[in-house]
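FORM 12-B: Structure-to-Sequence Request
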């Protein structure tokens, strides 16, 4: 976080909330070392709230490609427009559009209490507690909580508030996050170097890594997805843009869908192309098969090359469909799994692999 705040956590002067807000949203589901290059690229492309608010959603999603949980990018973009509108409204300030109250931040899409508290304490040194994943772990260990953090949120929020130093909230919250990131790590916490060792119930128990306690792991649902890379006589391929709802909303992808029980994968692809695009296609050889795990399910994509036969493609289950040349695919934001399909297609066609292939390797 030093790069985001310029290493100025010792002071109490206000800091620019914009880079802090962007970093906090990126860090919601992704580790710092993965976030850093994305954050730097983002700040170079959209260095201010005004430029982000004025950007096209397509460009915002393209910059986020490979970071996962794309709704975060759309919400940042929507939030920038919301702040800009509020600043231009009566009573607003175009020179200082940033809320100072928790409610002001909570009104922005995708901002919860912990992110709002972190921004307010980091940017304005205001006394708001935080409770991100690292802090939950530290606090649950401090009291050797017998329940998983998700089932003891109220108590952990109270503890975070109780411990917060009201004179130096910025420095305190940063120290708490640093403690979770560097010493009180999920496995093998470095209790010997920890300033809270003398007060820590998990340390006193002799088994600090046994905390926080967890619920029994549940088996993730598994699905096979048949995908068609459909080509026409001009050598173009067919892609469609997902509806805006859901985890990957607004991104582009190759058409396909879930395999029904007992259904051959070729029949799945034929059926999906018919149901979602109203086209008939001949399903040819397999291009690639790959697995991708999300937080709530595991998917296996079985991808076949297809030849378009008939029917004008219709966006029956998407926002729009488009025929594009294979070398144009990198101009569209795709989910990580589709980026690997692009790389396989480029290799098959003898094209130079580009950025899409890279995104597929580095995706969360
Ligand atoms: S003593 Fe160990 S378990 Fe307790 S807060 Fe410090 S690092 Fe975490």
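FORM 12-B RESPONSE
SEQUENCE OUT:
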């Amino acid at each position: 976080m030093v790069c985001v705040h310029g290493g100025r956590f010792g002071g109490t002067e206000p800091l620019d909330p914009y880079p802090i807000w962007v970093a906090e949203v990126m860090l919601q589901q992704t580790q710092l070392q993965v976030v850093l290059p994305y954050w730097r690229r983002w700040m170079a492309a959209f260095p201010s709230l005004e430029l982000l608010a004025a950007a096209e959603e397509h460009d915002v999603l393209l910059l986020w490609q490979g970071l996962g949980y794309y709704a975060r990018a759309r919400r940042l973009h929507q939030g920038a427009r919301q702040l800009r509108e509020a600043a231009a409204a009566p009573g607003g300030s175009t020179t200082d559009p940033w809320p100072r109250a928790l409610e002001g931040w909570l009104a922005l899409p995708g901002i919860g209490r912990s992110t709002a508290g972190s921004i307010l304490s980091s940017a304005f040194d205001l006394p708001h507690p935080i409770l991100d994943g690292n802090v939950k772990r530290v606090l649950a260990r401090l009291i050797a909580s017998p329940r998983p953090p998700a089932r003891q949120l109220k108590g952990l929020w109270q503890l975070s508030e109780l411990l917060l130093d009201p004179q130096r909230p910025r420095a305190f919250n940063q120290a708490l996050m640093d403690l979770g990131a560097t010493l009180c790590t999920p496995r093998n916490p470095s209790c010997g170097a920890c300033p809270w060792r003398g007060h820590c119930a998990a340390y006193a128990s002799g088994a600090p890594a046994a905390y926080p306690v967890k619920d029994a792991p549940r088996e993730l649902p598994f699905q096979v997805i048949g995908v068609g890379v459909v080509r026409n006589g001009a050598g173009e391929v067919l892609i469609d843009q997902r509806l805006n709802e859901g985890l990957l909303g607004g991104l582009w992808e190759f058409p396909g869908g879930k395999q029904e029980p007992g259904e051959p994968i070729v029949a799945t692809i034929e059926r999906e192309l018919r149901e979602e695009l109203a086209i008939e296609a001949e399903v040819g050889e397999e291009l690639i098969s790959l697995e991708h795990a999300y937080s709530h399910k595991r998917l296996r994509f079985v991808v076949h090359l297809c030849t378009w036969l008939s029917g004008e493609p219709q966006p029956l289950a998407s926002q729009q469909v488009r025929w594009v040349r294979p070398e144009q695919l990198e101009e569209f934001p795709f989910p990580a799994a589709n980026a690997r399909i692009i790389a396989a297609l480029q290799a098959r066609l003898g094209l130079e692999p580009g950025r899409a292939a890279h995104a597929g390797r580095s995706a969360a």
